[in-house]
Amino acid sequence: MGRMGISRHMKRHAAPTFWPLMRKDFKWAVKPSAGPHPVSRSIPLLVLVRDVLKYVERGKEARKLIAEGHFRVDGVVRTDYKFPVGLMDVIEVIDTGEFFRVIPAPTAYMTLIPVSREEGSFKLCRIENKTTVDGGHIQLNLHDGKNVLIRVSNPSKPSEDVYKTMGTLKVTIPKLEVVKYLPLQSNSMVIITSGRSVGKVGKLASISEGMGRHRKLVKIEGLKGDAIYTTLDKVFVIGVESPEIKLPKGVF
User: What's the half-sphere exposure (Cβ side, CA atoms, 13 Å) at 197?
Assistant: First the structure.
């Protein structure tokens, strides 16, 4: 294969283990484009269309469908077959009216679950960072690379700035209008995004003191009464008293 082919692809054995690929049958896999999610936490749109949704059997057929604009990701038509799709993204199949959300799943790391059109109109985004911009307004940097500007009438009033890092925004897509803020607090409903307990859901019980998200130990009360321990960077708030999103059967 020529240099152009190598630049567009990666070897299948090097692809993240949660990609549903037949690794011994073919040598190359699609390499995701630079985008809102890193390679280690995303799946190329082509792999979703061919190997997860199974609309077609061949990559060439998947590329054609994608190039023709049959799929939206977070409300935006994506024609790049290498576009990286990741955690909490919403995929719409325009022709069929189907909607799917990417959520963490035990062993598989990420999975697609079908959702209604109503639920497909919004997304949950974790706040990774926040900055003050001109005029004293607040810019929230989200886990999927998006930014939301929160306009405040008086920056000196803390009551207007309720948003904290590691909390979650429920936003419309694609306009990113804030519908609800889900704070990271005691009894918040959370899902674990990676590690041994990936995909498990429960209520936040406690957060230990520590330096940085990777060192803060979190205790979660599982839905079956079990205690789950992980680090703060792996926790994603999905609701206050109950989940804002549909979860796989048997989870909730």
Answer: 22
3-state secondary structure of 45: helix
Task: Kindly state the average pLDDT of the residues 102-117.
Answer: 87
> Is 183 within 8 Å of 251 (Cβ atoms)?
no
Assess contact for 91 and 114: CB atoms under 8 A. Answer: no
Per cent of the chain over pLDDT 70 is 84
| Beta-sheet strand order (sheet of 109-115) | 76-77, 71-73, 90-93, 98-105, 109-115
Q: Are 235 and 182 in contact (CB under 8 A)?
A: no
Span 3-117 CATH architecture: Roll (3.10)
The structure's pTM equals 0.84
Tell the CATH topology of 189-239: SH3 type barrels. (2.30.30)
Q: Could you tell me the fold of the domain covering 121-182?
A: OB fold (Dihydrolipoamide Acetyltransferase, E2P) (2.40.50)
pLDDT in tens, 214-241: 789 999 998 888 999 999 999 999 999 8
Q: What secondary structure letter does DSSP report for 52?
A: I
